[in-house]
Amino acid sequence: MLKGQIGSRVGFMHSRTSFVPSATLLSHWRPSSDDDGNDTDTITDLVGGNHAILDAAYDDAAAWQADALRGGVRRVDCDGVNRIQANTDVSNLVGLYEDSFTTTIWLRAPSDFSTNDGVMWGHRWTDNGWRIWGKNVSSKLRMTSFWLKDGTNTFSTVVGLDMADLETWVHLAIIWNLRQEKVDIYVNGTLWDTQDITGVLPFVASGVPTWGRYSHNTNSPSKVGWDSARIYRGELGVKQIVELADYRYE
Questions:
Q1: Per-residue pLDDT, 239
Q2: What InterPro entries does the entry give (predicted)?
Q3: Helix/strand/coil (H, E, C) string of the chain?
Q4: Of 104, 60, 84, 80, the residue nearest 13 (C-alpha)
């Protein structure tokens, strides 16, 4: 186990052909305008990069990919280096939030990660949405808050989870069970916490929500590296989350 990580699961680099995901992992959300998983680099309904805080130099790297191996599962593959956000029109997300769903992502904070840098893996538009917020605390990538708002209800907490040392990849999985009104948070394949979201309805905003990273420092994009972000319709089981936490594609 690497110092600063939770649990015993550590992500390794494997070739794309070394791992065939289970049937559950092939369950996916695919909007009608998707390219049906033909492995193109960019698709019209999910494009990235026009957030106001982003420099133009980072604006051209976003590529939401429909990965054929994973049956068209939504996947952002930025190879852990591109400092961008991926945006999509909310009309393409209709139906995703009417039931439970799962989001997963690999994160890595560089050595120059500061308290003004953060990562938002989720959705935000004006005052609506949710985010997972991470900052550098004692040379760790720490989850410092879990934020969700629908214009009326607000849920926020300082959770204080040291997810990983700087320069270390960590796998984060979040299961949204909208029927039971709870959120399960997994780090490196291990359940870390369950949050009650009773009465809080996510994703009611209109406009263009943001999926990806967000920086509280408006002078520069977030420095957190991210890779292989995915959105699954439905709830992944523990076995499937462990599978994803064991493998990070090159």
A1: 87
A2: ConA-like_dom_sf
A3: CCCCCCCCCCCEEECHHHCCCCHHHHCCCCCCCCCCCCCCCCECCEEECCCCCCCHHHCCCCCEEEEHHHCCEEEECCCCCCCCEEECCHHHHCCHHHCCEEEEEEEECCCCCCCCCCCCCCEEECCEEEEEEEEECCCEEEEEEEEEECCCCEEEECCCEEEEECCCCEEEEEEEECCCCEEEEEECCEEEEEEECCCCCCCCCCCCCEEECCCCCCCCCCCCEEEEEEEEECCCCHHHHHHHHHEEEC
A4: 80
CATH number at residue 241: 2.60.120.200
**Domain contains 1:** no
pLDDT tens-place string over residues 112-138: 766 655 555 555 444 444 555 566 677
What pLDDT digit, counting tens, does each position of 91-114 carry? Answer: 344 344 456 777 777 777 777 766
As a whole number, the mean pLDDT across the chain is 53
Give the span between the Cα atoms of 46 and 64, in whole angstroms.
Answer: 6
Residue 21 lies in a domain: yes
Taking the model in full, what pTM does it have? 0.61
Please tell me the total count of domains within the chain: 1
